[in-house]
Amino acid sequence: MAAPRPVRHADNTFVIAPHVPRTLLSPPGGHHDLDSILAHFDGYGCGRTGAGSVHPLYAQKYVKGERPQQRGYSLAVITEGGKTVWLGGQVAVADEAGKSLAGNFEGQAREVFRLLNATLEKAGGKLKDMVQMTVFITDVRNGDRLTEIRREIFGDNFPGSALITITALANPDAKIEIQGYAVIGSK
Asked: Lowest-confidence range among 43-47, 88-92, 116-120, 140-144?
């Protein structure tokens, strides 16, 4: 599969890859060459493999810290090549068999991770490909249990994460929602 090539639009913006924002690159009355455009995008999740080609990024180098490791997340996940998958928020108020999980934080959390994994499998990946997640919980007291569950699922290599306590989710029975993104593929 050929690497994506930058596309110049009529308004002098370029698209390097689908996940890179359209950014104005040309100064008034001037134009940048391809190398300066690619250099600009090196920080946006694209890299050069030579001769102006661009490759997407792969995950799996973790920047760790003592407190983040205790709380079950990484300070950063470094990526090199691969396919980025953006995951919409998932909630689970019933398990796979249809049994209600209302009021069961642990059951909902495990089911949400199962659903995220199933979505990633459809995209050719797995849960351990997640590099970032945003977790919304309705009771701050469930934070420690979430950390334990993530440690079981991810081992010692956690995605970057934000944990946000809110008063409620769209479904009143939901206790947790997780969204995030993954980078599938490795060298």
From this structure: 43-47
Asked if the structure places residue 2 within a domain, the reply is: no
The answer to whether 160 touches 68, Cβ cutoff 8 Å, is no
Residue numbers of the domain that contains 138? 61-184
Q: Distances from the Cα of 3 to the Cαs of 11, 21, 24, 145, in angstroms? A: 24, 18, 22, 43
**179 and 98, same structural domain?**
yes
Instruction: Kindly state whether residues 137 and 85 are assigned to the same domain.
Output: yes
Per-residue pLDDT band for 54 (boundaries 50, 70, 90) equals very low
CA atoms within 13 A on the CB side of 112: 29
Which pTM was predicted? 0.65
Across the chain, the runs of DSSP E, i.e. the strands, are: 7-8, 13-15, 23-24, 47-50, 53-55, 61-63, 76-78, 83-90, 130-137, 160-165, 176-184
The number of domains in the chain is: 2
Residues 72 and 140 in one domain: yes
Q: Is residue 16 domain-shared with residue 101, that is, in the same domain? A: no
